[in-house]
């Protein structure tokens, strides 16, 4: 799994339990997705230019350890499956000590300009395969 | 000043000091603006239909007392001035006991479809005047 | 499932796709949890007074339809299982037309003052059973 | 003014107007405050260790140009006045081209452990003066 996004916990992201509010990891994971797309050379702007878009259809997060204000979070991602019109990503968030704080998955569906599901373009599949060394699960 | 928006503090809105993070009052004030527009019978959807939009150019908030998780916030607003292309609102946020927690101002500029400043429509001026009993400061 | 929390989409909650950013449903679901606890007569303040606390360990959300600015969201929740030290909730978010927008689950672990897992108190189990008509899955 | 904090606009921070929701600059400015404190060698953790804390009492932001998803924001800060128990900061946020997007001020009040206003410690005044070359406005 490639670490592609690093962030430092903001005060706004903490809650009255003194830790990062758990919903914020959806944002961290979304930024990790954005950074992953840039890392593979297929940034979100490219998606729009090629006439498709992505919609999140499933999010799962497992919380192992809390993070606090000013902790540095190391966020990693990997495509685990590309189906006809969906892409599944695994996500991990670790602290400076390498401890796993949060891990989970997110599934994006590729949609065309009308919002209907569409085939994930081959250029995207190839960009992922090239980046991840070995091709993800075949369709 | 008319109380037009009420909200209960969410856990996500608290921070590690155990109180509402101060930046969240920008959101509460923005929802109060939305509710105010609805209260005067000129909702945001009407703005868009009439071919103009509003951009915030200035926000000032003064913090008097903190709020905590589950506190009910009573948000009030009043137009204090309508200039050629700008609208100034006064804002107050009080708790159940009527104590002032936050007060401030926000200035919106009316823009046309190109994003250039445009005259605040007379229908809006009249809607405000009718709602607030007496006309705001004349241009 | 009981609808216990209603909210109107805030402008701050929308994103550049023109819909509610998907991570915000974690917050809506968390407020639904809070409202559920109040509905069963065991509010969060009660948890603290009885010397335990809850930590979220798993969150899963499935996105069916998007919501837009000013949509009213109807949020429902039900306890689906209480194990020795964990509580699983099912969550549904619907629009005014009753259409399902988001559904999912969240798992809270009961912890004692040291942060170690502890048995979910019987008073809580009984409050849930009384509210939900029939007892959830027995331990 | 020293640039002490840089951030890239997150998708979650955009709104249905396609730009950064204006309330988010309160968060950016708060992180700039945190980074400023670290830059002068008096981090927030030091504040707590020395038995005082800071509360925001006034926030003012002026919006000049919008920012979009993936824009890099360069945030700068300067102490403009230290009174007996308050500290006033000027804040500027610029884009990569050096254009001013947002500028404003924030005022923090120093409070003791009971929450009562207290004198801003001399060590803090000296750290600011050393960092900013010339001492801020004398008390």
List the helices and strands and how they pair.
Four copies of one chain form a homotetramer.
Chain A: E1 2-8, H1 24-39, H2 44-49, E2 53-63, E3 72-82, E4 86-94, E5 100-111, H3 122-131
Antiparallel strand pairs in A: 1-3, 2-5, 3-4, 4-5
Explained architecture:
The structure is a homotetramer of 139-residue chains. The first copy, chain A, has 139 residues and is α+β, with helices and mostly antiparallel strands. The first copy, chain A, contains three helices and five strands. Chain A is elongated and about 45 Å long. The two termini of chain A are 21 Å apart. The mean pLDDT of chain A is 95.
What is the element string of chain A, with H for helices and E for strands?
Answer: EHHEEEEH
CATH topology of chain A: Thiol Ester Dehydrase, Chain A
Largest sheet of chain A: 5 strands, antiparallel
Percent helix of chain A, as a range, is 10-25%
Helix run count of chain A: 3
User: How large is the radius of gyration of chain A?
Assistant: 16 Å
Report, as a whole number of angstroms, the end-to-end distance of chain A. Answer: 21 Å
What characteristic shape of chain A results from the CA principal axes? elongated
Which range does the strand content of chain A fall in?
35-45%
What is the typical, i.e. mean, pLDDT of chain A? 95
């Amino acid at each position: 799994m490639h670490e592609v996004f690093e962030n430092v916990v903001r005060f706004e992201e903490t809650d009255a339990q003194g830790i990062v509010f758990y919903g914020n990891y959806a944002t961290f994971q979304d930024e990790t997705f954005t950074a992953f797309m840039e890392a593979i050379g297929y940034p979100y702007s490219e998606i729009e230019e090629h006439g498709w878009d992505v919609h999140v259809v499933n999010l799962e997060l497992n919380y192992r350890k809390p993070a606090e204000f000013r902790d540095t979070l190391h966020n990693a991602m990997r495509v685990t499956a590309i189906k006809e019109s969906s892409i599944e990503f695994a996500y991990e968030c670790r602290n400076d000590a390498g401890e796993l704080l949060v891990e989970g998955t997110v599934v994006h569906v590729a949609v065309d300009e009308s919002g209907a599901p569409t085939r994930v373009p081959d250029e995207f599949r190839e960009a992922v395969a090239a980046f991840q060394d070995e091709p993800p699960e075949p369709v």
